[in-house]
Write a structure and sequence with these properties.
Blueprint lengths: L44 H25 L6 H20 L3 H5 L2 E5 L9 H12 L2 H4 L8 H6 L1 E5 L1
Antiparallel strand pairs: 1-2
Protein name: RDD family protein
Organism: Corynebacterium hylobatis
InterPro entries: Pra-immunoreactive (IPR051791), UCP021697 (IPR016795)
């Protein structure tokens, strides 16, 4: 039975229009079962970018210091990336977040199992995908980067 309130200006009614799994929720993270605001809610893109910036600056300062004594790993940009990858893997695996995440009140959590640790291999995959920049810059309808979606994780507020 057709809806009498619809007119030809509304266009065709698309099957599954209201239960589309790719449609955005009422707030970022709703479909993941995360609260709208406060602890446990999805962190904003700006906050996550701030965390990455803090981590990168820390690694850059350490790399400049390291390169002053030896160039065994290469120049400052290469050593910065190496340190940043190590920081991302160890931080995600052992502490559920990097120093940048923690300073801005965030952490990394699994979306498939509540309360479970991210784990070593997820931390490795997440960090390596983040290092390619593009997956982190592209977000889904929940606001998660593609690297988080691929590894079944989310950056949440602490």
């Amino acid at each position: 039975m057709a809806n009498p309130k619809r007119t030809w200006l509304d266009g065709p009614q698309i099957p599954g229009e209201h239960d589309d799994p790719f449609a955005p929720g009422k707030w970022p993270g709703e479909k993941l079962g995360l609260p709208e605001a406060g602890p446990g809610s999805l962190a904003s893109v700006a906050r996550r970018a701030g965390g990455v910036t803090i981590d990168w600056i820390m690694c850059w300062i350490l790399a400049m210091t390291f390169v002053r004594f030896t160039d065994i790993l290469g120049s400052t940009p290469t050593v910065t990336l190496i340190f940043w990858i190590i920081l991302g893997i160890l931080g995600g695996w052992l502490f559920a977040g990097t120093p940048g995440h923690k300073l801005l009140g965030m952490g990394v959590a699994r979306t498939d199992v509540g309360g479970a640790r991210v784990g070593f291999w997820r931390a490795v995959a997440r960090t390596l995908l983040t290092s390619f920049i593009l997956p982190a810059a592209m977000v889904d309808s929940d606001g998660r980067g593609l690297h988080d979606r691929a590894t079944g994780t989310a950056v949440i507020r602490g």
